[in-house]
Design brief:
The complex is a heterodimer of chains A (275) and B (287). Chain A has 275 residues and is an all-alpha fold. Chain A is 78% helix and 0% strand. Chain A has one domain: MetI-like (MetI-like fold), CATH 1.10.3720. In chain A, helix 3 crosses helix 13, helix 4 packs across helix 10 and helix 12 crosses helix 13. Chain A is globular. By secondary structure, chain B is mainly alpha-helical. Chain B has a domain of 175 residues: MetI-like fold (Orthogonal Bundle). Chain B has 13 helices and no strands. The chains are: A mainly alpha (275), B mainly alpha (287). The interface between A and B is large, with 87 and 92 residues.
């Protein structure tokens, strides 16, 4: 009994406090999105809503451009998954299965990509895209998102491929398969779980991204993060509407994140833990 | 396809796009920082040497933004680290709902910065924010505070938001590190009569040192570069109270139309980060 008390006091209560901090703002957003407008404009603030309503969510989906913004975000994120995997898979295969001169240098070179501040790259990219008349297109956002997620995607996929025994490739090669066939029929099926993990990482990163979405697009192609921020400017702040938008945008990423966390976090931390 | 060219063919697409989207812009930014490039004078682009850099450095706003960046990076990352480390130590103990706690603690990490900025702006609202409501009801503050529009509280407010966003990263990374420390080390320490504090100082911390160093470095680079959270919450204001260096570079180029000076500021930021990185890597090697 004494041990149980101790666990509650020194472990469970502090953990509960940290969880309250972690979840509180999320829950407050959710609660704000389903309380009536009159609760949102009255001082002093009522913590518990008078009633619950979906009015803000319905208004958001019916009276604003939000459905189109969701569609744009979905297209960009799905495109980033496909392009990102298309670029990362062959590169990871090369790093995992070939020992060539410059391999280590190349691996570090890809990691360096993420060390340049986006603020330094974004202006030249904006000018480049404008000259190529690619501003405000899906292509602009997809290619930018795919590039800046490439280092981690390659890193993670390489470590997944390293986990597949090379004997399998060798057996296939001895049986007369070409490199391409080995990759297509031996490696690809086995690296499936790794591709799912990387794919979800790509999706969440693209779905959540703001700066590129603002600078390289924003008019014809307007993703949800840009759209939500723009709702602020238009005649005052409708917090109920914004929180409804935040809930709808935050939910998919959060659910995917929770589903994937073990796998993704394992890969994410592997680099740090190995030091 | 022979053995020597195959890996390069496989790498080619990734290399090509990385070159186009990273190396080319880096070269462009360097070049722009040495020219007078202004949105409002698009036809001329004279070479001006280091003028943009000298302009940037002689501007008090630059030094203010550099100071703000230091506060923002070191202040918020140390708080993220302490909170995350605490969470990791707790999650490394055994209790009934540990799995659930471990899953839920990362929730803030999954949200877009824009939404995090919006949530905290709403929570810190002067009239209707829950922070003021709870604060006054619990007697923590005597009257509501306009957190984001007061120069003395705005920085604390945006740092609170980034601490919320970033502490799960440390919780998760350090937990993985903790689980990598062999249990035998703790057993040996117990046999030698070490106290709980002794085990923490002589087993946990040394075992975790390299994970901590890497996680801190990665997070600092990320926080030093990030600007979307501040952009959404305060736009750098009030005045220059929350203007960090990347935001200053962005606004100089974007709102000011001064691409040359904006690029110079971005290059200065890159050099500072590069210097910090080399410094910490050298320190690591020396150990």
């Amino acid at each position: 009994m004494k041990g149980r008390m101790k666990t509650v006091l020194v472990t469970e209560l502090p953990m509960l406090a940290i969880l309250a901090f972690a979840l509180g703002p999320w829950l407050w957003m959710l609660l704000s999105s389903i309380r009536p407008e009159r609760d949102m404009t009255r001082t002093p603030l009522m913590i518990w809503p008078s009633t619950l309503t979906l009015a803000h969510h319905i208004e958001l989906l019916e009276r604003t451009s939000f459905v189109e913004n969701l569609r744009d975000s979905l297209i960009v994120a799905a495109g980033t998954v496909m392009v990102g995997l298309g670029l990362a898979l062959p590169a990871a295969y090369a790093f995992s299965r070939f020992r060539f001169r410059g391999r280590t240098t190349m691996r570090s070179l890809f990691l360096i990509i993420n060390m340049f501040p986006i603020v330094m790259l974004i202006l030249p990219l904006f000018i480049l895209m404008r000259q190529l008349r690619l501003l405000d297109t899906y292509f602009a956002l997809i290619s930018a998102h795919a590039t800046f997620t490439l280092p981690f995607a390659i890193w993670l996929l390489t470590s997944y491929m390293d986990g597949i025994p090379t004997e399998l490739d060798q057996a296939a090669l001895i049986d007369g398969a070409t490199r391409w066939q080995t990759m297509r029929f031996v490696i690809l099926p086995l690296v499936g779980p790794g591709m799912v993990a990387v794919g979800i990482y790509l999706f969440i990163t693209s779905w959540n991204e703001y700066l590129f979405a603002l600078v390289l697009a924003g008019e014809q192609v307007r993703t949800v993060t840009v759209a939500l921020q723009m709702f602020i400017g238009e005649n005052g702040i409708n917090w109920g509407l914004l929180m409804a938008g935040g809930t709808l945008v935050g939910l998919p990423a959060t659910v995917l994140f929770l589903l994937l966390q073990r796998r993704l976090v394992g890969g994410l931390t592997a680099g740090a833990v190995k030091g | 396809m022979n053995k020597r060219t195959t890996p390069w063919l496989l790498l080619a697409p990734a290399l090509l796009i990385a070159g186009l989207y990273v190396l080319f812009p880096v070269a462009q930014a360097l070049s722009m920082s040495l020219h007078y490039v202004n949105l409002f004078h698009p036809r001329t682009r004279p070479f001006v040497g280091l003028t943009n850099y000298l302009n940037a450095l002689s501007d008090p706003v630059f030094w203010r933004s550099l100071f703000n960046s230091f506060i923002w990076v070191f202040g918020s990352v140390s708080m993220q680290f302490l909170l995350g480390f605490g969470a990791a130590l707790l999650l490394n103990r055994s209790f009934a709902w540990r799995g659930v706690a471990r899953a839920l603690v990362i929730v803030p990490w999954a949200l877009p910065s824009v939404i995090i900025g919006l949530i905290w702006t709403w929570m810190l609202d002067f009239n209707l924010g829950i922070v003021n409501a709870l604060g006054t009801r619990l007697g923590l503050i005597s009257s509501p505070i306009a957190w984001l529009s007061r120069p003395d509280t705005a920085m604390v407010a945006v740092m609170l938001a980034v601490v919320w966003q970033g502490f799960p990263f440390f919780a998760v990374t350090l937990l993985a590190g903790l689980q990598g420390i062999p249990a035998e080390l703790y057993e040996a320490a117990s046999l030698d009569g070490a106290s709980t504090a002794g085990k923490f100082w002589h087993v946990t911390l040394p075992g975790l040192a390299s994970v901590i160093a890497t996680a801190l470095l990665l997070r600092m680079i990320w926080v030093a570069n990030s600007l979307d959270l501040i952009l959404v919450m305060t736009g750098g204001g009030p005045g220059t109270a929350t203007l960090t260096l990347p935001l200053h570079a962005m606004l100089t180029a974007w709102s000011g139309g001064n691409y040359g000076k904006g690029s110079a500021l971005a290059v200065i930021l890159t050099l500072i980060l590069l210097g910090g990185m080399i410094f910490s890597l050298l320190g690591k090697r020396k150990q």
